[in-house]
Amino acid sequence: MAAETRGPRRNPEEAFNAVGDHIGGDREQLLSFGTDEDLASVVQPGSDLVILAQVQSLFRWAQLSSIWPMTFGLACCAIEMMSAAGTRYDLDRFGAGAMRATPRQSDLMIVSGTVTAKMATRVKRLYDQMPDPKWVIAMGSCAIGGGPYFKHGYHVVKGVDMMIPVDVYVPGCPPRPEVLLEGLMRLQDKIRGKKGRLVRPKWIDDYITRIPD
Amino acid sequence: MEAFQQMLSQAGWAQGMQPWALSGLAMLFAGGTILGGVAVGAMFFIWTERKVAGYIQSRYGPMYVGHFHGVLQSIADGVKLLLKEDIWPTDADKFLFRIAPLLVFTGAFLSFVVLPFGPDFVGASLDIGLFYAFATSSLVVMGVIAAGWGSNNKWSLYGAMRGAAQVISYEIPLGLAVLPVVMSVGSLNLGTLAEAQRGWLWSWHLFNPIFFVSFVIYLISSLAEVNRVPFDLPETESELVSGYHTEYTGMKFAFFFLGEYADMFVVSAIAVSVFLGGWYTGIPAVDAFVPAPLVFILKSVFLVFVQIWLRWTLPRLRVDQLMYVCWKVFIPLSLANLFIYGLIRSMVG
Amino acid sequence: MTPAEVEAGLREVFGDRILSSSAVEEGRDTAWPRRIDVAVDALEEVCRYLRDSQGFDRLLCVSGIDYEGYDESGKGKHIEISRYEEDGSPTPTKPGSGDLAVVYHLHSRAHGGEVAIAARVRRTEPKVPSVGQVWPTALWAERETYDMYGIEFEGHPDLRRILLPEDWEGFPLRKDYAMPSRYHDVPLEGAPLAVRTSPREVREEKE
Amino acid sequence: MILPKLQHAPASRPGDRARTMKSELLHINMGPQHPSTHGVLRLFITTDGEVVHSVTPYIGYLHRCAEKKAEGNTYHQYIVYTDRMDYLSAMNSNWGYCMAVEKLMEINGMGVEIPEYAEYVRVIIAELNRIASHLIAFGTYGLDIGAMTPFFHALREREAILNIFEKVCGARLMYSYYVVGGVKWDIPPDALEEIELFVKLFPDKLREYNELLTTNKIFVERTANVGVIDEDLAVAYGCTGPVLRGAGVKWDLRKDQGYSIYDRFDFEIPVGGGDMGTVGDCWDRYWVRMLEMEQSLAIVEQALQQMPREGEIMAEMPRRLKIPNSEVFFRSECPKGELGFYILSDGGDVPFRCKVRSPAFHNLHVIEEVGAGQMISDLVATVGSLDLVLGEIDR
User: Fold this and answer.
1) Would residue D148 count as lying in a domain?
2) Is A17 part of the contact surface with chain B (CB cutoff 8 Å)?
3) In A, residues 33-62, which contact D (CB 8 Å cutoff)?
4) C86: domain range?
5) Using beta carbons and an 8 Å cutoff, which residues of D are at the interface with A?
6) Which of A65, B311, C160, C177 has its CA 20 to 30 A from that of B260?
7) Do D365 and C139 lie within an 8 Å CB cutoff?
8) Per 3-state DSSP, what percentage of chain C is helix, strand, and coil (rounded to 5)?
9) Of the candidates C135, C144, C107, C50, which has an alpha carbon nearest to the alpha carbon of residue D234?
10) Is residue A207 part of a domain?
């Protein structure tokens, strides 16, 4: 399944990422999880390979439990990102508090603030320097679509998704730390492949069913 | 290792084995146990670090991974790091870049062999144990230099140079500090050093005024030896991004991480066996029924906790100040300490 | 020292090279602090004089102004301040013709006076002497004015763009500036290039 | 123990060492993504070993066209953008802009009388925001020096202030609370109680910070005698705020220009006195901020006592503000320094030109002068002590 999604690599030693750094091709096999459909084609019901699904869920659990963000603040939203890591909100509860200063060791890039023309290439480079699997949260209106600088912002990129793929959009100007936490949980859902327990407590369902049509 | 050999020779299935096979098997067992212990211990310390940091900063730290206070956090981190993509910079020195994390981890791991967890629980009861431990733990700095040079990154290079200068300098007060104790006991064997502190609490070397000075010098120098705050100059996050391991990803980075925490335990354990009474509780009556390894490990963990505590409280020194403290304060002080102890011994006898 | 005294002193020394000061009409001062327009060639001397003889030791701010479309009659007609250019090059459709100006706001710690010195230049020949030798802080402020208005400061040791990238085209705070639609390979407007979605979420959306 | 004063390596000349050894200077980019540049500042440094030869700041990575936006938004609408300049002290930026517009109206004879109650509300909220801003400065400075914990403690107390702001205007960071002619909402009674509680509890926390960081031996050694900006340098480079006051200059617009109702309060202007080293070193700038928090607290306390129980929060204002041809340059004392607005109007409802004189822009300029000859660690300490906010530098 790796070969299909990523193309064959003749010589693993000769694999490069977008900024021209070598990547260990042998590890690509491990990294490409594919989708559930891929998995279903491998793991037939009653097959001995069912252990694979367990391993995969272990991998996913590990990845969603330890999302290390990059210390990467762009603008105002960075202050709210700091607050989210701070005492009251404590990103570390989710295992996401180990802020790494270097892109090489981080899993998550929180684009917290306005991306300008001058900075955009740097953002892209940082994204390329991160090792797979990696995720991006676009935090705040500016990163989502230019925000308040949409109209006369001659130097503002109208959304970071013009430069790099974004997994979760966290709206707000700036978003409250709670919203960033919610975004993180959404990202965890995305890695998990299904809605997690934390996202929807039972009382919400009860509450919804009690609302008259 | 001897304990393993003994256990094996008593086991029924190993009765017919050749002595060399038996000792080889024992070696494997001992090595495996230590390796597992190092890895699990380091993971535990990483979790502790995050929880203690959380407590000091009025946060919780990891809470949800593993349901109870994030106990599985380090395992999740480890598995995740294992799955990360492996990147090395195009112009990196590939050999050095690859071997550096192994050097760091091996250096930390080798020292475990001589740590006396109890009278019988020691990997290899070497007569030059202390000497060996210092020698192997300075292998770490080889890894740091290899990482910094091999990464082809200027920040890494800075980290490596700082690390080299720092570790080489602090080896000296570290070695000099324990010398009075060695003189007193007359052995470099860590087990013997611990054995010498049998009895009541005040027979610990810590409570001897001369040895107390040694202990303080040792404790502070050991912080520099394992690159912890306030001496974490090789990886100063606010100056050198991540220092010597800036370019490392995934498992290679994890080895640095594990190595650092294992090293913390090693220096603590040496301090325990040299100064803090080894596996003795300080009350002879209690010693009889408390398992020795437990006491030893608890004491070491406490010293590790002290290191963590300092890290989250203190700021960091500058390079020249670090060197100043070593060469102009600690080395003269430890030399004077050694001299005074020698003088007293020769006079008192 | 009041602004009027400063102005009187300046007129004494520089004569008619002091062009005008902000109009005082019917007891109403239209500028605060008092703004004194000086001839461009006298600017550096005036600044030096103000610093050395009048005690204006602090330069607070250097501002550029583009007078294109400025309504002297006070109606404030609306001007289209920016457009996107389809081909991405910021060439204005209708080049402006108004003057450019540089305003220096000075302050004296000695007597607490504030005064503004202004120099007005033609749009076709935007050249002003640099006062970086008088107040070092002007070096960056002038770079910013150059960056935004294209006013060249003669004698500036290092006149480069400061906020925008070095190869940026056009001067964005001019009123006839047209916004570029891309800068090299960075799109400044348009649709997202790629949005990463897992097949599962797509399927959920379909249902 | 007394640590030595750093002896800088003499500047090496090319031919000097070439005979013995081939050596060259190392060029490093610090930023735009670097943990200690407080955002997206890029410092291009040339180093000889650990010693920095030259520093060239490159800014503009957060240039958000704020001045262009001013020309397309009405006077009222532009308040929103002043929030996003100095995002750590948005209330003060709001206030500075509003006062500039009020001054512009005043010189055109359209003066508005700000209700007394509103003035008190403005002062209280602005001073609280000054504390919040200085708390971040304190915390991130700790991070730069290598102490992580003060940062989290500072965030903890900042949350208390943000709680108050949330009750007052519903926002945590971007308030847009001040409007031309007054403030937007009244302070709810429970927020007032919370402010009183905060005033009561905060001095203890300040003491805790001083124990944790200010008087820490390592911290003092790292910051005293480092990055000295003396009076001449500070004035020549247009430094303001704590950078200027840290250099020993007693200059604070709240006292010296006396805007709003600051003349009714009794407070000190803390200046750097070289308590730990030289006047104008990093420690002085840091210490001035710590003392300013105390003074702000005193102002809040007095304002709470003097404040009328109730009153108007806003003067009568035209919905569509049109100001005849005129210009104004108005400065106010923000946590980072003097924030000035130069507004040129031409009769329309949008400013014809609005230039922002940002304090951090001028404060940063001085790093070119101070940074050379330091060690890398000291450069980090110096940049941190300037308390930069890139949103304001790049606008």
Assistant:
1) yes
2) yes
3) none
4) 3-206
5) 32-35, 39-40, 60-65, 68-69, 71-72, 80-81, 84, 87-88, 136, 151-153, 155-156, 158-159, 162, 172-174, 390-391
6) A65
7) yes
8) 25, 25, 50
9) C135
10) no
Q: Report the distance separating Cα D346 and Cα D2, nearest Å.
A: 62
Cβ–Cβ contact C72 with D under 8 A: yes
What CATH number should be reported for the domain holding residue D363? Answer: 1.10.645.10
* H-run or E-run covering B20: helix B19-56
ipTM: 0.86
Q: Are B85 and A105 inside 8 Å of each other by CB? A: no
DSSP output for A34-88: --HHHHHHHS-TT-TTHHHHHHHHHHHHHHHH--PBB--B-SHHHHHHHHHHSTT
Q: Collapsing DSSP states into helix, strand and coil, what is residue B211?
A: helix
Residue in C closest to A189 by C-alpha: C201
Look up the CATH number of the domain holding residue C65: 3.30.460.80
CB count in 10 Å sphere of residue C89: 12
| Domain count of the fold of chain C | 1
pLDDT at position D288: 92
Query: Is the per-residue pLDDT at A33 higher than 70?
Result: no
For D288-325, the pLDDT digits (tens) are 999 999 999 999 999 999 888 888 888 888 888 888 88
Q: Do residue A87 and residue A57 come from a single domain?
A: no
Residue B62: asked if its preceding bond is cis (omega within 30°), the reply is no
Could you count the other beta carbons within 10 Å of the beta carbon of residue D84?
Answer: 29
What are the CA-CA distances from residue D16 to residues A211, D54, D305, D375 (Å)?
83, 19, 68, 21
Render C65-111 in DSSP notation, one character per residue.
EE-TT--TTS--------EE-TTS----SS-----EEEEEEEE-TTT
pLDDT at A8: 43
Residue whose structure tokens are 């390796």: B35
Instruction: Judge whether A92 is closer than 8 Å to chain B, CB to CB.
Output: yes
User: Which residue do the tokens 């975004």 mark?
Assistant: A183
Q: Containing domain of residue D255, as a range?
A: 66-393
Please tell me whether residues A112 and A21 are part of one structural domain: no
What pLDDT score does C198 carry?
Answer: 43
Task: pLDDT band for C146, please (50, 70, 90 cuts).
Answer: very high
Q: Are C146 and C65 in contact (CB under 8 A)?
A: no
- Pick the more confident residue, D346 or B349: D346
Inspect the interface and report whether the beta carbons of D35 and A71 lie closer than 8 Å: yes
Cβ atoms of B80 and A66 closer than 8 Å: yes
Residue D37 lies in a domain: no
Report residue A151 as tokens. 């109209």
Is D92 domain-assigned?
A: yes
Domain limits at A37? 2-65
User: What size, in residues, is chain A?
Assistant: 213
Q: A51 with A88, same domain?
A: no
- For chain C, list the contacting chains (3+ Cβ pairs, <8 Å): A, D
Our separate counts of H helices and E strands in chain D read: 16, 8
Q: How far apart are CA A11 and CA B1, in angstroms?
A: 44
Same domain, A29 and A53: yes
- pLDDT tens digit string along A144-200? 888 888 878 888 888 888 888 888 889 888 898 888 888 888 888 888 776 655 445
Q: Give how far Cα C48 sits from Cα of C54, C132, D127, Å.
A: 9, 11, 38
Residue D207 CA: distances (Å) to CA of D201, D215, D291:
11, 10, 11
Let me know how long chain C is. 207
**Cα atoms found within 13 Å of the Cα of residue B141, Cβ hemisphere only:** 21
Whether C193 and A162 lie within 8 Å, measured CB to CB: yes
* Nearest to D154, CA basis, from B58, B300, B345: B58
A143 and A169 in a single domain? The answer is yes
Please count the structural domains in chain D: 1
In three-state secondary structure terms, D342 is strand
Q: Is residue A209 part of a domain?
A: no
Query: pLDDT-derived band of residue D133, with 50, 70 and 90 as boundaries?
Result: very high
